[in-house]
Amino acid sequence: MSDAQPSPNAALLGQPGSRxxxxxxxxxxxxxxxxxxxxxxxAWAEGNGLALRPHAKSHKxxxxxxxxxxxxxxxxxxxxxxxxxxxAAAGIPGLLITTALAPDKAARVAxxxxxxxxxxxxxxxxELLAAYGAAAEAAGTRLKVVVDLDVGLGRTGTPSADDxxxxxxxxxxxxxxxxxxxxxxxxxxxxIAQVADRDELLAEPTDKVEAMVEALREANLAPGxxxxxxxxxxxxxxxxxxxxxxxxxxxVFMDVDYDAVAQxxxxxxxxxxxxVQTSVVNVNHPGYAVTDAGxxxxxxxxxxxxxxxxxxxxxSYRYMGDEHGAVVFAGQDERLALGDRxxxxxxxxxxNVNLFDHYHVIRGDALVEIWPVAARGNx
Amino acid sequence: MSDAQPSPNAALLGQPGSRxxxxxxxxxxxxxxxxxxxxxxxAWAEGNGLALRPHAKSHKxxxxxxxxxxxxxxxxxxxxxxxxxxxAAAGIPGLLITTALAPDKAARVAxxxxxxxxxxxxxxxxELLAAYGAAAEAAGTRLKVVVDLDVGLGRTGTPSADDxxxxxxxxxxxxxxxxxxxxxxxxxxxxIAQVADRDELLAEPTDKVEAMVEALREANLAPGxxxxxxxxxxxxxxxxxxxxxxxxxxxVFMDVDYDAVAQxxxxxxxxxxxxVQTSVVNVNHPGYAVTDAGxxxxxxxxxxxxxxxxxxxxxSYRYMGDEHGAVVFAGQDERLALGDRxxxxxxxxxxNVNLFDHYHVIRGDALVEIWPVAARGNx
Lengths: 379, 379
Description:
alpha/beta, TIM Barrel, nine-stranded mixed beta sheet
C-alpha cells in the first residue's frame, strides 16, 4: 500500500495550529467540509429514492469509502482494477468496476471475487464478457456483470441496443456470470457550466438510455440497476428519471473545475474540502513569491489552481516547473515571507489526488488524521 | 518506499515476449537505450573536461543514479528534499539539493548530513542560510552550501552579485557550513527549439554568471564548483565555458518535449528510452480505439504523447479522461483488437515518471527488471 512511506507530518498530529506548519507540498482535506458534502449528497439521494454508489476514483481512499457507506451508500464505484483491489482488501462492499478492462485482466478480477470481494464488472464487448466468464469459471466463482451503454460519451460502452441485448443475454445465460443491470455514464456533460444548457444536452442521451432499457425489457432482460450520473448532472438526472443509481464522485471534495458548474436553482450544495498547501521558498522578486508546489503537485489537465488562503486578496497562482509555483500579487507592494503557507483549491480532484500519498486531514487549524491515498497509481 | 506495493507484472520477469503482455498502463524503460544515453553523456562530459552531476529529478531512481555514478558522475542533483532523502537512504553520494527549500525543512536536511549523507544544499536568502546553519549546529554536523545565482529564470536564486557575495561570505564564515560553489541554472532556455536561437539567448545569462563569479573572486570567495546546464543547453554551455559542472537530467530518457529540441550540428545523441504501454479496451467506434492510459498515466503540462509502436502508421494519441486515451487512426479502415498493446513516448519525462510506482525494465522483448520509482511523491 502507498502508506508504506510515512508522511513527515505525522509528528504534528493533534497539535493546535499544525495546519499552518505542514511540511509541503501537502494535500489537505478539511474534515468539516468533507462531512458536510457526504451528508448533503446522502440526504439528497435518500430524499429522491435513488441508490448512491459514489465513485472512488475521486478519492482513492478506503477511509472515505467507509464514511460514504456509513452515510448510506450501496457501495463504491472503481475506475480501475487497482482501485477495486485496494477497496476489496480494505473490506469495502458493493464494488462496481465502471469501465471495460483489457481482457487479460479478467483473471485478477475473478481472483477478487473468489477471495470474497463483493464486486461487479462492466462489459461492452462479447470478447470481454467471454474472458470474464472463463476467468470466473476457472476461479470457481461467479461474477456480477453490468452491461455498459454508450449513450454519447464515445469512450467505453456499446452504442447499440441490439448489442446491449446480446451482451445481457450472454451474461444471463452464463453459469459463472450474473447479469444485474446496465450503466450509462454521460461524462461529456458533467462540466457544462450552465444548468439550462446541460439539461438540454441531457435529453438525447436520456432518451437513448430509456430506449435501450426498453429493448432489454422486451427481451425479458429488464435491468435491476440503471447506474450513472455525476456531480454535474445528478440533480437533472433525477428529474428525468431514467437512472435509479447515482455514481457521483467529485462532490466529496469539489475543485476549480466543478466550482464553475452551476447547480439547479443557484444552489451551492457542496463546498471545497481539498487543498494543496505550499510554502514560500523565494521572495527575491517584486510582484510575486515563489512556492514549492508546481507540476508535480497539481493536475495540469484543466484550469489553474485557485488560492483559497494565505495570500493577499486578488493574488493568482501559476506554475514555474515541476517543483515550483508562483503567487502573483494583484498589488505592487504586496509580499509574503519565506516559509509562509498558501493553500490552493485543486484544479481537478481525481488526478490531483493521484499525485499524493497522503491526505492531511484537518479539523479547524489542527492536523487530526493522516489517511493514505491507498489506491493511487498504476496499473 | 514506493516499492511496498508490488507490480502485478513481477510474474513476467525473464519471460521472452513479456514486453507485449504487461498489465497496463505501465511505464516501460528500454535498457539498451538507457545505457546508450548514459554512456554518450558520460563520454561527452569527460571529453570536455566537465564534471557531471546528473539531475535525479528526471528519474527519481537510485537504480539509475547508481548507473550514472558507475559511468563517472560526481553524484546526482535532487530537486526536492524527498528525492535527497531517498537517494541518501540508498547510499548515493555527491547529492546536491538544487533548490531553495522552506526554512523549516532545514532540520531534515541537517539530519541527513548528520546521518552520514554526502550532500550539499543551495541558498539564495540570508534567512535560509541562517536556518541551515542553526540546524547543522544543532545536529552536530557541517552542511555544504552552494549559492544559487538567478541569471534569468526568475524562480530561485539571487539576482544580485552583491547578495551572492554576502551569502557566500556568511556561509564561509559559519562554523557549521562549508561554502563550496555556485549554481546557475538556465531552465528557461532548455527547450528553445533551434540551436542558434538558444545559443543567442544564452549570451546574456552566461555573462551574468561570469560577472557574479568575478565578483566572488574579487571578494576572495572564488567558487570551486560552478554548476548548471541541462539537456537542452549543455553542448552550448560547454562552448561558452562559464560552467564546470553539468546537471543534465532528461537525456537518460528523452521525451516528446526534448525530441523537438535540436542539438548542435544536427546530432541526435540521445534516444527515446521511456514509454507508457497501454492496452486497447474498446473497439466499438470507427476511426479510433480506446485505451487504458489517460490523464493519470501521462504528464499533461506539455505536448500530447507520441505513439512509438503498436498502432498503424500515422495514428495519433489523445486523452479521454483519467483512465482512458484514444488511438486515432489516419486511415478509415484501420483498427486494433481488444487487448492490443500500444506504446507512447512520454510527453515530459520528469512529471510523467512521478505518476508511476515502477519502471518495467525491458531488454529487447523481455521484461528483465522492475525498479521502484522510489523518490516519487511529496513532500
